[in-house]
Amino acid sequence: MDKMWAGRFSKALDKEADDFNSSIHFDSRMYKQDITGSMVHAMMLSNQGIITKAEYADILNGLSGILKDIESGKLPVDMEAEDIHMFVEAELTKRIGDNGKKLHTARSRNDQVALDIRLYLRDECEEIGGLLLKLIAVIKDKANENKDAIMPGYTHLQRAQPITFAHHLLAYAMMFKRDFERINDAVKRMNFSPIGSCALAGTTYNTDRAFEAERLGFDGIMMNSIDGVSDRDFCIELMSAYATVMMHLSRFSEEIILWSSWEFKFVELDDSYTTGSSIMPQKKNPDMAELVRGKTGRVYGDLMALLTTLKGLPLAYNKDMQEDKEAIFDAVDTVKKCLSIFAPMVATMKALKDNMYSAAQRGFINATDLADYLVKKGMPFRTAYKQVGTLVGYCVENGTVLDDIPLEKYKEYSELFDRDLYNEISLETCVAKRISAGSTGYESVNEQIDYIARFLNEKGIH
Ligand code: ARG
Fold this sequence. Notes:
Layout: H1 15-21, H2 24-27, H3 31-47, H4 53-72, H5 84-96, H6 109-145, E1 150-155, E2 158-164, H7 165-190, H8 209-215, H9 225-230, H10 233-259, E3 267-268, H11 287-310, H12 324-347, E4 350-351, H13 353-361, H14 367-376, H15 381-398, H16 407-413, H17 421-424, H18 427-432, H19 442-458
Helix pairs in contact: 3-4, 3-8, 4-5, 6-7, 6-12, 6-19, 7-10, 7-19, 10-11, 10-12, 11-12, 14-15
The structure holds arginine.
The site of arginine has 10 residues, from helix 6.
């Protein structure tokens, strides 16, 4: 295909160099944003008297036809084109003749691509936000079903204190809620229009950038045309937010993988989200969770790739920047796929409450509560802590647990011990007694569920 910029050259581009230079294989997915941007640009040109009303009508008509035909599959994107911008413009000229050649007045591909990526990411963030809300809703419902499920809470992956499964799940709901907000914050910062920056220095035409910005749903224009075409920090910010989503998903995945092992058996994943082994008949593998954990590395890699591409890059546009798209697209695709699979996997996951309960039972998970018991009877916390430590040592030596030591034995350690201690250190009491805000106590967990439900309601999820 003849290059639009061919005028200055006496020789065609080498075939391999042409392929190397081309971005159509990956940027064709922005066709809709590209056409939308062009429609508004043409409208502005016409409003400003830079092109005539008739020329505008012609261009608009041509662009609508192209959009419709790409969407219906009638017009395949030509993979010989250099990029999506060139393809649309060439197709327009093919359809409407010379008027098509007027579209690119007061514009450059540099501001055009900067615009397209923003429009594209705004759409994708809307979708990713929706998927995050769905996942948060699933977690909230799971938590609601498991308010009574007592399990060990861990630090250092050692049993620490009893919590409810609901409380544990809600921690993730809070993280994903912040992820949702983080993405929206980045979108707010991204939502300024670069179009009209042109190649880098602006233009001699009397354009109306504010009009274009408003029409395209931006909150304003980018105030510096060099920044308008050079900046990709919005991509980095969003990818960092996506990487954080993946980090949260991978922690959750890791726990689901552990919980569904025979050693834990806290949950059972639904058959539809597990796979078998080609050799071991007993296996039920948590592949989806493992893949999500694995794909986290990809998204981190995408972020690193873009940071590295932009490092030390002089202003303004450089072709290096064409590399931004594959990284962003891969990150977007990966996050979307992972969120879509994760929500139903969690929704169909069964909590094995009895196993959780017994895992919490035969350890020393109530040791803190026994120390608190002594504190309430007047002993300073540090002394009580030491006292209970000695008792745990006694249990370990004698193969018993705090719940089974007879009262007479307790009395040898401290006169403050009484019959009520057994109730005080039962798992149910340990949980119920936790009255501080945000704690595992029943009232606090209900408050957390309400908090998440209110957030979801505000976002239109009921
Ligand atoms: N395909 C290019 C990209 O993705 C479009 C911008 C080209 N601009 C240029 N001056 N060659 O970055």
